[in-house]
Amino acid sequence: MTAEPIERPDVTGAEPDDVPGERLWTGDLGLLPAASRRCLLTLIKGPYLSYARHPQQWAALKQDEPAIRSRLHDLFLDLVIDEDALVAYVRNVAAPDADAPRTVRSARLTFMDTAMLLLLRQQLVAAPPGERVIVGLDEVAEQLEVYRQGTDPSDHRKRVNASWRKLDAYGLLQPADGGRFEISPVLRLVLGPDEVAALRTEYRRIAEGGDAAVHLDDETEADA
Predict the structure, then answer these.
(1) Could you write out the three-class secondary structure of 143-166?
(2) For residues 48 and 184, is the Cβ–Cβ distance under 8 A?
(3) Is 19 left (phi over 0), alpha (psi -120 to 50) or beta?
(4) Which domains does the chain have, with CATH numbers?
(5) 60: part of which helix (H) or strand (E)?
(6) Taking the CB of the first residue and of the last residue of the chain, which one, N or C, has fewer CB atoms within 10 A?
(7) CB distance 40 to 54 below 8 Å
(8) Between these two residues, 92 and 191, which has the higher pLDDT value?
(9) What are the φ and ψ backbone dihedral angles of 135, each rounded to 5 degrees?
(10) Which letter does DSSP use for residue 179 in this model?
């Protein structure tokens, strides 16, 4: 694992170029400027918006945050912003008094998917604040050997490779130099501390040879 400094944005006085209420086409009834609309679309499409990948949309988010939150609430979605990691994403409204449908789709995660998520999240949390975390597939696979449990090595590697491709497709891994990948800082927010603690306890028991409550191909469901 290697860590690299993250360039911090200067959002002082940052403003989208467009004037709110400007019509972008004939018959346009939208109220947001173009940059804020693109920001809103990126948030809805997911998996997240980041300053590093979308600096103009990040500036629009900072400028028009109340209006963007309002549009998301119209869709039963909450906006989550991590100012330290410079990422934002949406999630289903979870207010106890909200009779809200589930807008964000769910993804099926295997045992190996979740084990890899925990491993990558642990490396993120262990890194100094404000630094990028770069990893390679081979080193991650080596650390996941503890969950092989006597299965064929080639079969185990196929499962690891499949989980790696899935997390890449979800935007949790970003290509870096030399065939390595940066762990997305949004992964800090995907699992809360209570969920992480419960999963680690169960996975530690399995790694130590306890009777597995789940098999390597069992699936759980998580918001994507």
Answers:
(1) HHHHHCCCCCHHHHHHHHHHHHHH
(2) yes
(3) beta
(4) 31-103 (1.10.10), 106-223 (1.10.10)
(5) helix 55-74
(6) C
(7) no
(8) 92
(9) -135, 165
(10) G
Task: Give me the count of residues in the chain.
Answer: 224
Helix or strand holding residue 77 (H, E) = strand 77-82
CA distance 75 to 91: 11
Which three-class secondary structure string do you get for 98-161? CCCCCCCCEEEEEHHHHHHHHHHHHHHHHCCCCEEEEECHHHHHHHHHHHCCCCCHHHHHHHHH
Mean predicted lDDT score pLDDT of the chain = 81
Nearest 5°: the CA angle 187, 190, 191 is 110
Distant-in-sequence, close-in-space partners of 85: CB < 8 Å, separation ≥ 6: 50, 185, 186, 188, 189
Unique residue bearing structure tokens 């990893």 = 135
Query: Which of 160, 216, 223 lies closest to 195 in space, CA to CA?
Result: 223
Tell me the C-alpha distance between 109 and 171, whole Å: 15
CA–CA distance, 80 with 67 (Å, rounded to integer): 14
pLDDT, one tens digit per residue, over 166-208 is 999 888 898 998 889 999 888 877 666 666 777 777 777 766 6
Distance, CA of 100 to CA of 78 (rounded, Å): 11
114-125 pLDDT tens trace? 889 889 988 988
Using an 8 Å Cβ cutoff, are 224 and 105 in contact? yes
DSSP-derived 3-state class of residue 85? coil
How far apart, in whole angstroms, are the C-alpha atoms of residue 155 and residue 16? 50
Nearest to 37 by CA among 6, 64, 13: 64
